[in-house]
Structure formats: structure tokens, C-alpha cells
Amino acid sequence: MPATRPSHLALCLLCCGGTLFVASFADATRLRQQRAGATHEMQALVRQLQLTDLCLFTEARYTRHPSQADLHSAFQEHPLALEHFPSGSLLLPPAILSSRHERLDREAEVPD
Amino acid sequence: MIELRQIHKAFNAGRENEFRALNGIDLQLPAQRVTAFRGPSGSGKTTLLSIIGCLARPTSGRVRLHERDISGLPERFLTEIRRRTFGFVFQQFNLISGLSATENVMLPAYPLGGDRHALRARAEHLLAGLRLAHRRTTRVELLSGGEQQRVAIARALINEPPVIIADEPTANLDTALAREFMAIIEQLADAGRTVLLSSHDPLLVDSSLVDRVIDMRDGRIVAAAAPAGDGG
Amino acid sequence: MNVWIEKQKYLIDFTLASLARRKAKNLGLLLVYSLIVFLLASVMLFTHALRQAANELLAGAPEVILQRMVAGRHDLIPPGYLERIGRLRGVQEKQGRLWGYYYDPVVKANYTFMVADDRLLAPGTLVVGAGLARTRGVAPGNLISFRAYSGKLFTFSIADILPAKSELVSADLVLLGEADFRAFFDIPPGHYTDITLRVANPLEVRNVAGKLAQQFPDSRPILREEILRTYESIFSWREGIVLALATLAVLAFAILAWEKASGLSADERREIGILKAIGWETGDVLRMKLWEGALLSLSAFLLGYLAAYVHVFHFAASLLAPVLKGWAVLYPRFELSPVIDGLQVTTLFFFTVFPYAAATLVPIWRVAITDPDAVMRG
Ligand SMILES: Nc1ncnc2c1ncn2[C@@H]1O[C@H](COP(=O)(O)OP(=O)(O)OP(=O)(O)O)[C@@H](O)[C@H]1O
Ligand SMILES: [Mg+2]
Q: For C83-98, what is the mean pLDDT?
């Protein structure tokens, strides 16, 4: 059979894709082992410092530690902050509030 | 070989615009002959050929092939019979553009799943026999009308059907190409195939090639006469 | 069997040849399709891995945290509370935590100040998270000044930086000694931010929490399970938002596919007629089209999924980070430990591959069951 037959080419490519698909699972296992060091390090840190949250959302106080926050208090830190409740993505704080806060932010330069 | 009995075909049956294209056709078509259907436009030639070739079903009446009633068979069997028995050369050639001449010729054999090398060799042999060897890899839309028709003939022959059906085969050809077509048909008839044609073209219908001419009008057969030239 | 395989190969040959005729259009379709799978798969892989990371990492968090509430907001633990807890069955260890937030106007970021008891930090020195060090541009030995909420300016020297590998939990941390912390935030001795309790037996946790709630009506206990559940729902809804947006894309694509499929062009209709006239069965035509749909959607799925895998786990989901970051200035750099949910991938597969194949098949079916005699007429 000539290698140029389109169906052979297509089936070959599909097989390659399938193999890579399976390989992705193998690669996941490999990476997990490779990154186990970091995981252990973080686990140790969590235990040692008694941490309660992932450092993912640092935009506001109450988003930094979702588990520790005064729950249900949107806009409490920074009127520009999008908080993590669904309503926050629907309703923005009034513009006056944010513009004033912006200015205050700039006025509050650190003296040093 | 083919026998038609009381074939009726009505389009849009039962509706306001019902149209009776065929009104009781009785016909016997022996094998290994060239038969031509002649008649004015709208007389039902194409309709009759598509019923004979199992492309359409009659509204009523029976079609018998090799003594077997095929008019009531389910679609799958009809396709099977069509594939084994009939090769079609359409008036508009109906090649699939974008594919090469060889690929077009091979198409009717795809569902059979035979060996590809053998199939390609057969297709190329057929094309070579029709003096198209040099055009076999050309995309069909780039071929001239005559070349396209020869590709269509090769496609009709690929499954080696005993019957060739050609609807108005010379309508799109000039005289020289029409003569060339007739030469090919003559070869096929000599090789023992049954050929069914429809045509207005006197060049074709009145030639010595045709064994039998069937005149049609308003969905009926008017007269069946053998041309003077040949007894057949 | 051989004939069957050979036949399928012929059908694939044909379908590829007809796809190749409208190369630009079909490649475009494949691209858009893969992109959608890529988007969906990226979100799925990323959030799932993140959820797993939260579960895995926070498993070491204290089982119970006691937080004092004043008028519905949390407040410092006054002196004496820690002692008042006394001996509770199942509690191995109890400890007052000191931590708080600091908004740094220089980079407009929030930091978490925290006392690390067992780190023995010399007065006036800090250990900071790697993310903070990067954002503020500081290195060990540098001096850093913070204006406390009281207005006084404090200058610390940086003793160390937490390992970069641990940014996912520590990017914004500022660790300092207890005396420095109390001075900086003006917290009198004996006061704590909250109290943590270690409970070894998971069955005791609820009991302990119940007793605490009874003993300290002004405080609320936060359980580790609740924390994990909170994370579960946060990621779920952020995933949900992205998926909801992606659904729009999927819908748009569905319209496109439907349009392409149902608005079968006159050419395609004619072609199907020709194929049937020259001896293809309805089933052959359908199978050929099924192959077309299957090849296209399978390739799109594989391409999209593989790209998503590489994107999320080898390129740290760089395209998704903005969604997660929100307005945060200080965002951790982290590599997720890949965990793939087979069920999720299977769902993705079914939801992306099958509808397309079906969408292409339905209108073909309608055309393919009609009599082929139309090809006899121009
Ligand atoms: N699908 C259809 N619906 C309605 N009427 C149809 C249909 N197909 C054919 N007809 C009508 O049936 C009649 C016979 O058509 P047919 O094509 O068989 O004629 P013909 O003899 O081949 O004509 P021509 O020489 O012009 O090709 C025509 O009047 C045509 O309009
Ligand atoms: Mg006609």
C-alpha cells in the first residue's frame, strides 16, 4: 500500500493523536511525581504556619482568605475589587466611589 | 432480459399538480442489443430509463429482470442490482468535481471494498482504452466535454455491468464527438453489452448502430420499428 | 472483515477528498472547533487540578479555628479565652494565632502578615513570600518600610524569602516575630487574631466545635471540612462562569455547524444523488458522512484536549490566569500537580464529538433517503 493513501494518513494521524491522548495521562503521573516535592513543601508550610487558604485571590482582604472572611461583605476592601460572589460580576460599585478611592490611593503615597 | 408490464408513473400523485409521465408501458428488451428511445421533449424517455435502471420506482406496473420481479424489492436490493447490472452515462455527465478522472471512474466500486491496486489498474485500463491515459490524474472539471463524457463512460463500465443506460448522450456533443461516442458504443455492443439510449439526435437514432428504435409520445409507446439499415 | 475495512478506507478516502475541496472552510471549521474544545478542556483541567491541590494542601490546616465575632464582624480574641477553653476531649493542641492584612499602597497589593512561632525571627527582620518579593522587587538583606495603621513608619530587613515552589500558599506572606507584629498592628499582649485547635480524630471534630460554640457564644468555630467545601464551591462557580461564557461559544458553534450541515448546498445534494445513482447505498452515503463528522470532531477533540493539557500543566494555564487573578496585583506563580478526572474528560468527549457528528448526519439522512432519479435531470 502506498503511504500516500489519504485514509491511511488520516488513520495514522488519528492513532498518533490517540497515543498522545493516552500519553497525556502518563505524563500527568510523571509530572505529579516530579512536582511532589513542591507539594510536600507546601504541605509542610501549611502545617507549620497553620495556613487555611490558597493564595489565589489577593485583590481584597476578604478574598485572600475566603474561609476566614466576614462572609457576604462585598466591596469591603476596595470598591474596585471584584469579589468572589456571582453578584459581583453583575453589579459594579458606583463610579463616584471608585474615582474617589482611586484619588485617595494616589494621595496616600508612602513618604520614604 | 428486461420486461416491463403496464408501467405507470405519476408525479405528485393525488395532488392538484399530479402529472402522469408514463401511461402503461409494455416492453420487452432483449439482451445484447442497442435500443434507442425517441420522442418529443416531455414524452417520458428519461422517466422510463430511470425506472428501467432502478433509479426510480413505477407508480404501478412490474419490472422484471432476468425473469425476476424487481419492482417490489427494498432499496438495498435495488441498489445492489443497479450496481451489478447497470452503468449510467448521464446527459450532464454528473462527474464529481474536485476528484481526478481515475478517482471518478473508481467511485462506483468503492462500496464493494475490493483491492485498491486492482481497482486503480482497472480504472486506468478503462481510461486508456478510451484514449484518456494522459488525463487520468487531471481534475475532471478541467476536462473538455468530450473527455468528461469518456470519463463518465469509463465510470459506467468499472463494475462491468451488462447493461449501459445513456440518456441523451450526444446532446452536449458536436458531430465529431458524437461520432466518436457512437464508435465507443458500437465497441461495447460488439463486446456483448446491452445498450439503452434516449435521444432526439437523428445522427444517433438513425445510425446503423441502433438495432431498435422505440417511439414515445405522452408517456406511451407509439410504434416500435427496426430501422431499415440493420436487421439486428 | 477485510472487505469491511477496505470499504471503510474507501469511504474515508472519498470523504477526505471532498473535505480537501473546501480546504480553507474545513480547516477553519476544524480550528474553531479545536479552539472551543481547548477552552472547555483548559477550564476543566485547571479547575479540577486546583480543587485537588486545595484538597491536598489544606489537608494540613488546623481542624478547628475559633473566631470571635463582634456585631457580626470578626474581632480579636481577648485575653483569657485560650485558657478558658481548658481541656477538651480530643483536642491535641490549641494555639492563639496572630495574623492580619496589610494593604501596600506602593504596589496596591494586599499582604498577609503572620507570626511564625517556630521560626525564631530576630526583631526587625522579616521572611516574605516569593510573590511579594517579586512584586516589590526585594531580595534578602534589603530593607523594606511599611507605614502601620497607626501612622508610624516601620523599617524591617528581609532575612529570607520563602521557597518559590510554595507560592500557591505563600506568595503574599510576611512572617515576623510576635513582638514586631504586636508593635506594628498595635495589638496588646494577650490578644490573638483567632485560636486554632488540632483534633486528631475526625469524628470528634463536630463535638469539639459544638462544645466551643456553647462555651463561647460570641465566637464561631470554622471547621476544616467547611474550608474545603468553600474552596470546592469557589472553584466550581468560577469554573461555572467560564463554562457559561464558553457555552455561548458552543452555541454559536452549534449554529454554525447546523447551518453548514442542514443548509446542505445544492452541490452536496447533487453529489449525494450521483453517488446513489452510480451504486452507493443510502447506508454508504451515511457512513461516508459519519466518517467525515467523526474525523473532524475526533481531530478537534484530540487537538483541543492535547493543547489544553500542555497549556494547563506545562505552561501553567497562562491564558486562564487573568480570569482567576481578577484585579489582584500579586499573583502566585505555580505549577499545578496534574490530576485528570477521567469522567470529566469523557463528558467533554461526548459533548463535543457526538453532537457534531449527529448534526452533520441528520440532514444528510433526509437527502440520502430520496430517490436518486433526480440526477437524470439537470
Ligand atoms: N419530479 C417530477 N415532478 C413532476 N413532473 C416531472 C418530474 N420529473 C419529470 N416530470 C415530468 O414528466 C414528464 C416526462 O419527463 P421526462 O424527463 O421523462 O421527459 P423526456 O422525454 O426525457 O424529455 P426530454 O426529451 O426533454 O429530456 C415531463 O413533462 C416532466 O415535466
Ligand atoms: Mg430526458
A: 87
Residue C224's pLDDT is what? 86
Please tell me the total count of domains within chain A.
Answer: 2
Identify the band that residue A2 occupies on the pLDDT scale cut at 50, 70 and 90. very low
Strand C173-176, strand C109-115: pairing? parallel
Instruction: Give the span between the Cα atoms of C275 and B154, in whole angstroms.
Output: 15
Tens digit of pLDDT for each residue in A78-106?
444 445 544 445 555 555 555 655 555 55
Residue A79 confidence (pLDDT):
44
Q: Are strands B163-167 and B194-198 parallel, antiparallel or unpaired?
A: parallel
| Residue carrying the nine cell digits 507549620 | A48
Question: Are C54 and C24 contained in the same domain?
Answer: yes
Tell whether the model's pLDDT for residue C161 goes beyond 90: yes
How many angstroms does the Cα of residue B94 sit away from the middle of ligand 2? 14
The residue whose C-alpha atom lies closest to atom 17 belonging to ligand 1 is B46
* Domain of A93, in residue numbers: 56-112
- Per DSSP, C332 falls in state -
Grid coordinates representing B175 are 458531430
Residue pair C120/C175 in contact (Cβ under 8 Å)? The answer is no
pLDDT at C376 over 80: no
How far off is chain B from C333, nearest CA to CA, in Å?
52
Same domain, C54 and C68: no
Do A45 and A66 share a domain, yes or no? no
Work out the average pLDDT over C309-332: 83
In this prediction the pTM is 0.82
Q: Is residue A2, in this structure, part of any structural domain at all?
A: no
Residues in chain A: 112
Are B113 and C7 within 8 A, CB to CB?
yes
Q: Is residue B156 part of a domain?
A: yes
Please report the pLDDT score of residue B103 as a whole number.
Answer: 94
Determine the pLDDT at residue B38: 92
Residue B199 beta carbon below 6 angstroms from any ligand 1 atom: no
Count of domains for chain B? 1
C323 has pLDDT over 90? no
Same domain, C6 and C129: no
Ligand 1 and B45: CB distance under 6 A: yes
Q: Calculate mean pLDDT across residues C37-44.
A: 89
Residue C358 domain boundaries: 2-58+230-377
Q: How does residue C22 score in pLDDT terms, banded at 50, 70 and 90?
A: confident
CATH number at residue B39: 3.40.50.300
Q: Which residue do the cell numbers 496572630 mark?
A: C98
Is it the case that residue C201 has pLDDT exceeding 60?
A: yes
Q: Determine whether the interchain pair B112/C7 forms a contact, defined as Cβ–Cβ distance below 8 Å.
A: yes
The answer to whether the Cβ–Cβ distance between B115 and C282 falls below 8 Å is no
The answer on pLDDT for B232 being more than 50 is: no
Neighbours of C249 (CB within 10 A): 14
Q: Assess whether C77 and C52 both reside in one domain.
A: no
Ligand 1 pocket, residue B42 CB under 6 Å: yes
Do both C114 and C219 map to the same domain?
yes
Phi-psi region of C288 (alpha: psi -120 to 50; beta: other; left: phi over 0): alpha
What ipTM, to 2 d.p.? Answer: 0.89
Last residue within a domain, chosen from A15, A34, A51: A51
Distance C375 CA to ligand 2 centre (A): 11
Residue B176: strand pairing partners:
none
> Are the Cβ atoms of B46 and C377 closer than 8 angstroms?
yes
Tell me the best of B9, B16, B46 to mutate to test the pocket of ligand 1, counting ligand atoms within 8 Å of each CB and taking the most. B46
Q: Does C290 touch chain B (CB under 8 A)?
A: no
The span from the CA of C305 to the CA of C314, in Å, is 13
Residues 6+ apart with CB under 8 A from A36: C337
CB distance B77 to ligand 1 below 6 Å:
no
Domain annotation covers residue A1 = no
Task: Round to whole Å and give the CA distance between C279 and C282.
Answer: 10
